[in-house]
Write a structure and sequence with these properties.
about 290 residues, Arc Repressor Mutant, subunit A, D-Maltodextrin-Binding Protein, domain 2, 5-stranded mixed β-sheet, 12 helices
Length: about 290
């Protein structure tokens, strides 16, 4: 194993995480054939099979699992070293890897990012839009802006505003006499969004009311509500400036904070600090959009 290096282990990790050569190829940005060739070369180097090839995918052998654990430890060490070096960088130039939800990216961030670019034109904000929580420890992002009641304890940051929620429908729906939540036709969050406290509260609140549609995006739910397809639950900032009217506020105890988080090693980075400060300042100015009176 004298010639074993990190590049070999990267292919091993991606194969294990993706469960197939195709998944590893997508993650690495290479061809399917390249992944298989590198895996074969790695198995030749260690002198044993690292995966069992099954119809359901590639399953690590005992030797493969041990090597995966070594590769993960090396990945953590390399990522940590890179973060420490970047955390010492004071220059206001370079990339910022930033993740947030589709709702915040669409409704709040365009103007904020525009003014940030005007102030810091040498910093490139590389956005990853997802409703899933990314892993800052594995460098899937440098910064995260998302609502949560319990931010991961290993990350650092602060809650910028309270994010209140409400039940919304168009005036045409409300004027038709459907002021009772149970009498409404509803548009419900689906997928990962269905597991949130607001979605669970709404389902309990409306009981067996009619459901017209579900979606795993609050942007889609808002669009359907604006078309008078039904009522839905939304964070208050998403209803601001639309024709939707409030039917009922959700219990404030369920309101999450909007947290801006980063990895501890990156707190000293000039560009990370500049981006965090700008976001915090701009979102604080929008507090009335987020918090009900």
């Amino acid at each position: 194993m004298k010639d074993l290096d990190w590049n070999d282990l990267r292919y091993l990790l991606c194969m294990a995480r993706g469960g197939s050569a195709a998944g590893a190829a997508r993650a690495l940005g290479v061809s399917h054939a390249t992944v298989l060739r590198r895996l074969h070369a790695l198995e030749q180097e260690v002198g044993m099979a690292l995966f069992d090839r099954l119809q359901s995918g590639y399953i690590p052998t005992e030797a493969g699992q041990r090597l995966i654990e070594i590769a993960e430890a090396l990945e953590r060490s390399l990522t940590g070293a890179r973060r420490e070096l970047e955390g010492q960088a004071k220059g206001l130039a370079g990339p910022v890897h930033f993740t947030t939800t589709d709702s915040l990216a669409d409704c709040i961030l365009p103007d904020i990012l525009h003014t940030f670019h005007e102030r810091f034109p040498a910093i490139t904000v590389q956005m990853r839009i997802t409703n899933a929580r990314l892993d800052l420890d594995r460098r899937e992002a440098d910064l995260a802006l998302r609502p949560t009641h319990e931010p991961p304890p290993a990350w650092v940051g602060k809650s910028l505003v309270r994010m209140d929620w409400g039940l919304y429908a168009t005036p045409s729906v409300l004027n038709a006499g459907h002021h009772d939540a149970i009498a409404q036709t509803w548009l419900l969050p689906d997928g990962q969004l269905a597991e949130g406290p607001m979605s669970l509260w709404l389902r309990e609140r409306i009981g067996n009311a009619t459901v017209a549609a579900t979606a795993d995006s609050f942007l889609a739910l808002r669009r359907l509500a604006e078309n008078a397809t039904g009522a839905t639950v939304l964070p208050c900032f998403m209803a601001h400036g639309t024709k939707l009217k409030l039917l009922e506020l959700a219990p404030r105890a369920l309101s999450p904070g909007l947290w801006l988080l980063t990895h501890p090693h990156l707190r000293g980075s000039g560009r990370i600090r500049a981006f965090m400060d700008h976001l915090a300042q701009q979102i604080h100015a929008l507090r009335p959009h987020f918090e009900s009176q």
